[in-house]
Design brief:
Distance between the termini: 27 Å
Shape: globular
Number of domains: 3
Strand content: over 45%
Amino acid sequence: MLTPRRVFIPTMTCLTALIISGCSATPTPAPSATTETGSTSTQNTTISEASSPSSRLALTYDGGIMILDGKTFEILTSIDKEGFLRLHPAGDNRHLVVADGSSYTMLDLGAWTQEHGDHNHYYTTTPSLTQLTFPADKTGHVISSHGKTAMFADGTGTFQVYNPAQLTQESQNTASSLELQTVTLPAAHHGFAIPLADNRYLVSRGTEESRTGAALIDAQGNLLAENKDCPGIHGEAQAANDTYTLGCQDGALIYTKGTFTKVTNPQDPYSRSGNQAGDPDSPIVLADYKTDQDAELERPEQFALINTLTQERTIIPLPEGVSYTFRSLARGPEGSHLLLTTDGKLRYWAEDGTELGAVDIMEPWTESTTWQDPRPAIWVDGDTAYVTDPASKKLHVISLAQIEQGSAEVFASIDLPHVPNEINGISRSAHPGTDSGHQ
């Protein structure tokens, strides 16, 4: 339950409020920030020390979440939870954030690493859905960066920010409370907030009717910079050099060090890149590429690579009749690009776009017109890719160790008791206390 809020409203001119919300003949609400504390009662569980780091997977299904060991593929537990569930890294490589449309809840996957001088200690406990829950009207994007995590609520245009390091208390159990800062944007919309250095945030701009661009704001919501030239803004990714890409209906924005740069492909005035996969060590971002504005469901047969150094978006075609979905994109070792395609393959390219190869994983499949329906999805931990196969109720495990030589192989296929939908996890290859993925 949330304790009473301690509210502070920053001093802000009407002009700044109008700038961040777009020009208007009538005054619009100024962005604001508040601080609150979420409080729960968390039951203590047995904690064991392990000899090596662990990875664990979470897979949603109709009615709950399955938790699997990433090495043995044993189902450790299944947690009942109704609703359409989405999974996001919480930022500490131990917890995930479960979004159910009206709240965000911390899921403890029960494995973590603790630094101890010149070595690490590894711990495990029983995975559990904690009671650390925060209301959010129309849950949306959850993004971790720069030691903070921002949970966006589309229905209110607000986002709540916490420090992931505070999710685990000194007893090694999930914390019983979590301090949040809430920042309110001028209008509700389907948006996002990316934590940056110096208590700044890169946020979307828009209303319920339209989304128009991006803005840089401080922790009190004050406008620092903006770009109004990103219609339908959706999707983001982090690239090297603290650079971010944002998807537009006519290209992409590249943000770095307070500056926005628009990237377009003139041959395709409508060219949406609303789903992206980045790597903080790579200057190139993998993105989808859709060109049919009137399609009820476009099945793209090409994708894009956004080069944040040259500020270009290169288009790479797929074989005729081969497509992919928003859950198909991932990054692999050495900046490689991975794509699950509807012919049942996992295709992969080098960082520069050179095609390396493909591996057969499953039977060909067709994307449902209902975006919430299960379809193949991918999550990567180091040189291992985990791919869901809803049609056969399987989880396929692919070795990417030889991907640069054009060789990836399926080395395990696990039968699941439920049809899997979303997949996410915590990494055995990540550094202690770091995010296991950027969404």
